[in-house]
Amino acid sequence: MQKKVKEAMKAGDVTLDFKTDEKIEKPELIDTLTDFTSKGPRSIDGAIKPEISAPGDMVISAAKGRGKETVQMSGTSMAAPHMSGVMALMKQAHPGLSAEELKAVVMGTAKTIGEKGTRYSVSLQGSGRVQADVAAAAKVISDVPAMSLGEIGVETKKTIRRTINLKNISNEKLDLAVSFDGSESVSMPSASVSINAGSTSSLTVNLTLDASQMANERIREMDGWIKFSKDGQEVYRIPVLAIAHKLSNIDAKDLKVESSSLDSSGAAATLNLQNDGKNAGEVLLFNSLGNDERKPNAPSFMSGECDLQTAGYRIKPAKEGQGPVLEIAVKLFKPMTTWNSCDISLLIDADGDGVAEQELLGSNMASIPGQQGDGFATTLLDAAKARQLRKALEDKIDSAKNDPAKLAALKGTEDYSDAIIDQQGMTVFNNSSVVILQMDASKLVQTREGAIAFRLLVSHNEQSTVELDDTLSTMDKADRRISLRLEDQSFLDLPDTLTLGGGESTQLNLVKGDGKDKLLVLMPSNLFSQSNLYTDSQSVSLSPNYLGQ
User: Fold this and answer.
1) Cα–Cα distance measured from residue 327 to residue 324, given in angstroms and rounded to the nearest whole number
2) Does residue 24 come out as left (phi exceeding 0), alpha (psi in the -120 to 50 range) or beta?
3) Facing residues of 111 across strands?
4) Distance, C-alpha 427 to centroid of its chain
5) Rounded to a whole number, what is the largest CA-CA distance in the chain?
6) CATH 2.60.40.2310 domain span(s) along the chain
7) pLDDT digits (tens, 9 = 90+) for 207-223
8) Where do the DSSP E strands lie in 215-364?
9) Distance separating alpha carbons of residues 357 and 459, to the nearest angstrom
């Protein structure tokens, strides 16, 4: 074929007609997502990601540096070139549109895809599978290509109002019907809009989020599409996604100790909890490690994420086969859609020389070189061994810096598996500001007095961030020490987790220990805050009222 085309070109212009009556229909390849596709929403704020789906599995492309040879590849490396090609075609089809408008063209003309009769969520497919031919013939676009409602709290019902500006890029007047297609937990009144050729019209939509339609879980994705139709045929769409929190309204107060402050060790203590909301919520109790002030508003190039607000600890008695369990609770100022971007680290320095002997790391295992899987875990590392492994790798890289082949062979060989002492569970409250690490305390290196001396850090592992680590202000210059002796805690008999139903109240019976720390009460189902100015209601630190005084 190639030779025929070249021969024909000698005589003049050559036109190829690729149209054929024969079609190979394989919807399982065209409209089924691969098992390796990434799922959104965006880790930090719950925004829509991905925004669109494109071919990326078993794609045949030119083999780099191998002449006429081809190679079959899969992944974003294939999907991204497809979208680049589509955008080039869109620039030809709609030369007068801006880059942002062209993005709205391809997203607004995508196709909903799914599997076994069930559509994929917006957080999996974005607006849908790209359709270059439909996008080339687009008649209308919006200034809002995606309606990301992000992290949003809902107690019962909540109506969100948004204004959409629609631009008619065709040569005819458009009379469009407007409707919503998606989750049962989202509703929108049907509407209509008329747009003259070449003109723009504004449309106000009201989306109602209904918590009663959510499952029993505390959080659920509410999603779908606002669709625009002409004569019953869809001509445009806007994906909608809300990461909804089914809010509780729990208050913790009246922490009382049945003694004076002088003789409080071992005394009975009580705490009152009241849920004034309509939804159930969790309560978690810890001994406070301290609170921090919110960072002042930073320039836009700095990240305010992974900003540590408060932390606490509790020690559970030893069980058969293991020592006492140390649990560390960490709370940020802002909620995380997922905890992939924030790592929690306890740098344990038993001899006080400023160099950690161990690191207790709470993270996604994929962030530890050499570990497999993408689950969350609390990992205890031999810090000295980890430093040795890192130094050995750096030495190899340095010795191979003038040998590209050796450097390429070293890529991906970083591995800290030999430095891992133990791994335990990590309780992650996605879509909240709270996470809990746990570890067998007998495996932690201790001071001569039997205490754990450490510095607590929260690391933001996005490369674009400026401030990588955040710590409590009380740990800026000195390590914090906690005793592993149960009675040395401020409060004992702390329940693992308590669920308080809507409208329910209860009084907890606790025991006062020898410590002087406040009681930290975490309520991850309560209202959160995305603001840099206002603090949420997901935690409170209480000082006891001594009744014996």
Assistant:
1) 10
2) beta
3) 129
4) 15
5) 107
6) 31-60+70-246
7) 999 988 876 565 688 99
8) 219-230, 233-246, 250-257, 268-275, 281-291, 308-316, 325-336, 342-348, 358-364
9) 19
Q: Could you identify the residue written with the tokens 């789906």?
A: 53
- Per residue in 367-411, pLDDT (tens digit) is 888 888 778 999 999 999 999 999 999 999 999 888 888 888 888
Which residues, listed in sequence order, are joined to residue 498 by a DSSP beta bridge?
A: 283
pLDDT band at 540 (very low <50, low <70, confident <90, very high): very high
Q: How far apart are CA 370 and CA 85, in angstroms?
A: 36
The contacts of residue 109 (CB under 8 Å, 6+ apart) are 131, 134, 135, 138, 235, 236, 237
Instruction: Give me the pLDDT at residue 300, please.
Output: 45
310-330 burial string, b = 16+ CB within 10 Å, else e?
bbbbbbeeeeeeebebbbbbb
Which amino acid type is present at position 308?
L
- For the domain spanning 31-60+70-246, the CATH number is 2.60.40.2310
Question: Residue 447 to residues 183, 357, 443, 450: CA-CA distances in angstroms?
Answer: 55, 11, 13, 5
Q: How far apart are the first and last CA of the chain?
A: 98
Which residues 6+ apart lie within 8 Å of 536 measured at CB? 333, 433, 526, 527, 528, 529
Nearest to 218 by CA among 475, 72, 407, 434: 434
pTM of the full predicted structure?
0.85
